[in-house]
Amino acid sequence: MAKEYETVIGLEVHVELATKTKIFCGCSTEFGGAPNTHTCPVCTGMPGSLPVLNKQVVEYAMAVGLATNCTITQNCKFDRKNYFYPDNPQNYQISQLYLPICRDGKVEIELENGEKKFVRIHEIHMEEDAGKLVHDEWDDTSMVDYNRSGVPLIEIVSEPDMRSAEEVIAYLDKLRMTIQYLGASDCKLNEGSMRADVNLSVREVGASEFGTRTEMKNLNSFKAIARAIENEKNRQIDLIEEGKEVTQETRRWDDNNGYSYAMRSKEDAQDYRYFPDPDLVPIVISDEWIEKVKANQPELRDEKKARYISEFNLPEYDASIITGSKKLADIFEETNKECNNPKKVSNWLMVETMRLLKENNMDDTDVKFSPSNLAKLIKLTDDGKINSSVAKEVFEKVFAEDIDPEKYVEEKGLVMDSNEDDLKAIVEKVIAENPQSVEDYHNGKTKAIGFLVGQTMKATGGKANPGMINKLLKELL
């Protein structure tokens, strides 16, 4: 009888915080920029330079900890993690091992079948990011860019509570949503502001001991993470079935080729020779400071979703989709304040906005149009000034360029023609030119009227009132 195996997964999630400056100096954290232009003696590890802690980093870390049900460590400190690598200018990283700022949290995830479970968080600690190596394959050289060195990170370390790729994605999505709603990070995986390392082992179903785990790096999308988990699970099962041992190591996932390869043996804490950082004083977090951060916590996704259903009477599906993006939720609320039509606002966001995002391969955070212009477009349709097909055409311009729809409709002469006498003459002409459709209609083929509506719309350049066309056609037929 074939053995059954269970996958055991824990995650280390690094999140770049949305501060304007780095964790221990005043250099910019802005993404991009020419190499080595966002640097100073502190973040390039020059001898004699001294770090000064950015208070906002501590507050963001506390905010994430409170939102994930962690205990805040009121006396915490920084440690030096020693390792030697070209993108690590000091030859150590300032991190937290002994007294991380947050501990013992948990987040609730919901799976596609409606099942809910908790994933425990072992700790959240603050640390600085390293620089970035740029490899030139033509010259066979590597260059280092220290712009990212010293960018503030939190590392969220889970317990090994996940058992499938679906659970991992649900957990990451919940974390990303929570952090985005807090404003602590934009969590863009493609820009590296959220990065997940997957610790995975397999064991026989029913076994109490964990198997030997590997850590997988270089995972920059949810799809890549799911593929990497499936691949590594099968790789480890194959090794066990062949009577071979799984080696504890760090592996790099190659998403283009669909396989992982060993990078190095997996280090343990003692390999890094941690010791307290002598240049940074301990952090004392008062009860008052915690209460202040608590008081500033915004409404998070689950609460917002429940409110949209009760306050705006949105279906649960609509509320789920809209609150699934902080950006769309913000646009929804601001637009609705101006036009007071929640269902229509919801429809524009869920249908046309989502369609254009997909067609343009854009992230929801890339939406640029203002809620005010969406509200104006909805009002134009509600007031009968433009029909639905014109509204979609105008919205594409709003989406791409954030144009003022009222001015655009006026300038382009797109205001709907609702003059009954003018339309009647056009409808009569369409009826005269399409005798077969008229005969079909009289023979009970009611769909024929749809063709005649289309022909009338075409004759009016798409500007006619479809409701009035229908009414006139039925009267004249």
TrEMBL record:
Location of the Asn/Gln amidotransferase domain: 330-477
Any one GO BP annotation for this protein: translation
EC number in record: 6.3.5.-
InterPro entries listed in its UniProt record: Asn/Gln-tRNA_amidoTrfase_suB/E (IPR017959), Asn/Gln-tRNA_Trfase_suB/E_cat (IPR006075), Asn/Gln_amidotransferase (IPR018027), Asn/Gln_tRNA_amidoTrase-B-like (IPR003789), GatB (IPR004413), GatB_C_1 (IPR042114), GatB_Yqey_C_2 (IPR023168), Gln-tRNA_amidoTrfase_suB_CS (IPR017958)
Catalysis: reaction(s): L-aspartyl-tRNA(Asn) + L-glutamine + ATP + H2O = L-asparaginyl-tRNA(Asn) + L-glutamate + ADP + phosphate + 2 H(+); L-glutamyl-tRNA(Gln) + L-glutamine + ATP + H2O = L-glutaminyl-tRNA(Gln) + L-glutamate + ADP + phosphate + H(+)
GO molecular function: asparaginyl-tRNA synthase (glutamine-hydrolyzing) activity; ATP binding; glutaminyl-tRNA synthase (glutamine-hydrolyzing) activity; transferase activity
Keyword list, A-Z: ATP-binding, Ligase, Nucleotide-binding, Protein biosynthesis, Transferase
Keyword ATP-binding (UniProt): yes
NCBIfam families linked to this entry: gatB, PRK05477.1-2, PRK05477.1-4
Protein name stated in the entry: Aspartyl/glutamyl-tRNA(Asn/Gln) amidotransferase subunit B
